[in-house]
C-alpha cells in the first residue's frame, strides 16, 4: 500500500486531469485540484487558480495547506492548445500556450518545492505529450511547451534529487476524451492507423501511470519520460 499523501492536480476539472484526481482518490490520497471553472471529482478539494497568475497559485496553495496539509505530490497537468500552421501563428498564439503549459508548470512547481524541501520529500509529475518529442504540424507552440517540460524535470532532478524529491514526465499519446470523440470518423481512423496498439488510450490508463510514478515503488525513478502512447512515439 502506498503511503497516503497530499496531492495537487492542476487542471483537474476535466479530461486527463480529472481522471488523475479520481485515481489518487481511489488509492486513498488527499486530493486537491485547481480549476479556472468547473469542479474536480467528488471527494477532491477544488480551488480556483489560474496557472498564468503566480499570486492565484500562491493563494490556492495556502488554501490547500490549511485544509489538507503541505502538498507532497504535484501533477502539473493544466494546458491549452492554439493550433495553427507556423506562418499563421501569431506571437500571441505562441506566447499564450507557452505561458500556460510551460511557465505555468514552473510557477506551480516553484511554489510546491518550498514545502517539499522542508519535508525532504516530493513527487513532481509533469504531463507532457507524445507531440513534445515527436512533433506535429500546426502545433509548434504546443510541442515547444511540452518538450520544455522534459528540461524542467531533468534540471529539477539534478538540483533537488538529493533531497528526496523526484521529477518525472508522463507523455500521453491519443487519449479518448471529449476532444477525440468529436473528431470526424476519417480522422480518427487515420490516427488509429499510426498507433501500433490500434486504439486510443482511456484516461484511466494515463492516471494509473501517474499515480505509480508518484508512489513509493518509483522512488528511484527521476528525470524519466514515460510514454503512454500505445507505441506511437517509440521512445522519441
UniProtKB/TrEMBL annotation:
CDD domains: BKR_SDR_c (cd05333). It comes from Agromyces intestinalis. This is Beta-ketoacyl-ACP reductase. The keyword Membrane does not apply. Residues 5-178 form the Ketoreductase domain. GO terms for molecular function: oxidoreductase activity. Keywords: Oxidoreductase. Belongs to the short-chain dehydrogenases/reductases (SDR) family. Pfam families: adh_short_C2. Gene3D superfamilies: NAD(P)-binding Rossmann-like Domain (3.40.50.720). NCBIfam families: PRK12826.1-2.
